[in-house]
Amino acid sequence: MDALSDAAQGVDVAHRRVEYFVPIPDSTPDRYLAFSFSALIAPGSDPAFYDTLVELLTP
After folding, report:
1. DSSP 8-state assignment for residue 24
2. Spatial separation of the C-alpha atoms in residues 43 and 8, rounded to whole Å
3. pLDDT for residue 20
4. Average pLDDT, the chain
């Protein structure tokens, strides 16, 4: 997910965020692990760098 800079919505800088919810096998009741990664996108930076970070974290 990309969030554009919009101070009116509480987002001061653009960033890339990845979130995963992974089920824990054989858990009763069902339980999950949550993983979250966020990187700020500097103005004028190469977006390929952030795309690569997201790909590294994508199963």
Report:
1. P
2. 19
3. 83
4. 77
Between 11 and 14, residue with greater pLDDT: 14
Measured between alpha carbons, how far is 43 from 36 in angstroms, rounded to an integer?
A: 23
| Residue that has been written with the tokens 């996108």 in this structure | 41
pLDDT in tens, 15-41: 778 888 889 999 999 999 998 888 778
Cα(48)–Cα(21) distance, integer angstroms: 25
Distances in Å between the Cα of 10 and the Cα atoms of 2, 3, 39 are: 14, 11, 16
In angstroms, the CA 6 to CA 46 distance is 20
d(CA 41, CA 16): 7
Strand order in the sheet with 2-3: 2-3, 15-23, 32-40
